[in-house]
């Protein structure tokens, strides 16, 4: 007898099932999280993965044997180790997500190669690509040929392969393509992802494995699957960047073994991902000595990064002047323009204003406000800014220059790189650097008098 399909509606935040669609989940109270799923009637639901698990005894802390040298494995990739908090932790499960084509599989293959060179055994389970495709990519990336591969996508078979193998690390590519034959839904649904993650987590704990799981993202940029997926894993990594740009940033959204404030910076090249050991200067190449250009400092994780802000102000021939911002929020640009017009009496309302963050970087912090204002004024007046100058500070609505977090760290890094003129808010910061001038204007008006 043919199995019938049935529609159910499941909340991707808490997993609650409904017989009809609801705008708000009645269990967790979240809006827009109830999604339609197809289940096949007639299949047996799998029992809980914990059903046959042995009971664990109670131990005192001083009875537990722990050694960082034995239970934390360095990946051999310093930028990845930085984000992880030193390396992979034994008996852990990690989730790596990111946009399609961003380099998730490349990063995992390079990590596998590094681990094999450190005498670890790695099993790569690719449910998306054929072993021939992985082989071709491994040759391009010069990955060790000792890597073990399989195309298995059935959860029970994967579990058996992991248990029988002597591998220390297991890479799953990807969690959305694995399915359990006993669960009455197709691969990629909430119940399948949830069941697979629970099963893999228990194998990691019971067999002393490190499981690395690759996950897809939705159109909105969230990790595909139930929110519970992020709670079940130990580490959640997000790989971001633009496919047309060569830089990539690895962030930690959750880390039970280290800080979530560190980032790893990579460059995508033909031979794979290359680490950027000093990201502070990565976006500073070929900075022109022209009007409309200003350098700013942002903090990514705990690392200062210096970026160039370019502005072009030109006479408008439209009834409504154009406002274009690339890399910053357009609302922030409008606020900066309003401050310039009100506090400096420059009639920018008659001009088209175009603003760009060089390198395709997207800035989320207000510390670039001062640099944006200087770049716009420089273009408006068509006057160059002092050479080797950098602007650090938030611009308030009254035209005052406000303090930003970690300013001492930003100044120290700017001085180290070679900036001679550093403009910061009026704070108690001593100038301990030779041949470097630190300016502390209170307002944007004072700053303009100093620069122009």
Structural class: alpha/beta
Low-confidence stretches: 44-49
Please state the CA-atom Rg, rounded to the nearest Å.
Answer: 27 Å
Largest sheet: 9 strands, mixed
How confident overall, as mean pLDDT? 87
Report the sheet-strand fraction.
Answer: 25-35%
* Helical proportion, percent range: 25-40%
What is the CATH architecture term of the largest domain? 3-Layer(aba) Sandwich
Question: What topology does this entry show?
Answer:
Layout: E1 5-11, E2 17-18, E3 34-40, H1 68-71, E4 72-73, H2 78-84, E5 88-89, E6 93-98, H3 104-117, E7 122-126, H4 131-141, E8 148-150, H5 155-164, E9 169-173, H6 190-206, E10 210-215, H7 228-232, E11 235-241, E12 247-255, E13 263-269, E14 272-275, E15 293-300, E16 303-315, E17 323-326, H8 330-344, E18 351-357, H9 369-381, E19 389-391, E20 394-395, E21 401-402, H10 407-417, E22 421-423, E23 437-439, H11 444-451
Parallel strand pairs: 6-10, 6-11, 7-8, 7-9, 9-10, 17-18, 19-22, 22-23
Antiparallel strand pairs: 1-2, 1-3, 4-5, 11-12, 12-13, 13-14, 15-16, 16-18, 20-21
Helix pairs in contact: 5-6, 8-9
Binding site for ATP: 98-105
Protein name: DNA repair protein RadA
GO molecular function, one term: ATP-dependent DNA damage sensor activity
């Amino acid at each position: 007898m043919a199995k019938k399909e049935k529609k159910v509606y499941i909340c991707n935040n808490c997993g609650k099932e409904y017989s009809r669609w609801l705008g708000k989940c009645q269990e967790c109270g979240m809006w827009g999280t109830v999604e339609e799923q197809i289940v096949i009637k007639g299949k047996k639901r799998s029992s809980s993965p914990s059903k046959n698990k042995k009971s664990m005894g109670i131990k005192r802390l001083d009875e537990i044997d722990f050694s960082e040298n034995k239970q934390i494995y360095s990946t051999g990739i310093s930028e990845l180790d930085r984000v992880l908090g030193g390396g992979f932790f034994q008996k852990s499960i990690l989730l790596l997500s990111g946009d399609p084509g961003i380099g998730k599989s490349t990063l995992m293959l390079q990590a596998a190669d590094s681990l094999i060179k450190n005498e670890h055994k790695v099993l790569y389970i690719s449910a998306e690509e054929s072993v021939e495709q992985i082989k071709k990519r491994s040759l391009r990336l010069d990955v060790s040929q000792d890597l073990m591969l399989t195309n298995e996508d059935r959860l029970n078979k994967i579990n058996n392969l992991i248990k029988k193998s002597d591998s220390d690390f297991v890479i799953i590519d990807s969690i959305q393509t694995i399915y359990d034959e006993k669960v009455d839904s197709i691969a990629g649904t909430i119940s399948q992802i949830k069941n697979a993650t629970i099963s893999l987590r228990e194998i990691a704990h019971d067999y002393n494995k490190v499981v690395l799981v690759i996950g897809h993202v939705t159109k909105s940029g969230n990790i595909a699957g139930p929110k519970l997926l992020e709670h079940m894993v130990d580490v959640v990594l997000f790989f971001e960047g633009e496919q047309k740009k060569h830089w990539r940033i690895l962030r930690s959204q959750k880390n039970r073994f280290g800080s979530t404030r560190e980032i790893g910076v990579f460059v995508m090249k033909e031979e794979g991902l290359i680490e950027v050991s000093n990201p502070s200067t990565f976006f500073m190449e070929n900075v022109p000595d022209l009007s409309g250009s200003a350098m700013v400092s942002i903090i990514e994780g705990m690392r200062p990064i210096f970026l160039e802000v370019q502005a072009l102000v030109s006479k408008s021939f439209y009834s409504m002047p154009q406002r274009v911002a690339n890399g910053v929020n357009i609302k922030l640009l409008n606020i900066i323009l309003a401050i310039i017009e009100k506090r400096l009496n420059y009639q920018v309302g008659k001009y088209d204003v175009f603003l760009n963050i060089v390198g395709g970087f997207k800035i989320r912090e207000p510390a670039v406000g001062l640099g944006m204002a200087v770049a716009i004024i420089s273009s408006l007046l068509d006057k160059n800014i002092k050479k080797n100058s950098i602007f650090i500070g938030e611009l308030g609505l009254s035209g005052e220059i406000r303090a930003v977090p970690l300013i001492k760290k930003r100044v120290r890094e700017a001085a180290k790189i070679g900036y001679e003129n550093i403009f910061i808010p009026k704070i108690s910061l001593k100038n301990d650097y030779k041949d470097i001038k630190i300016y502390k204007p209170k307002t944007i008006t004072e700053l303009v008098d100093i620069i122009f």
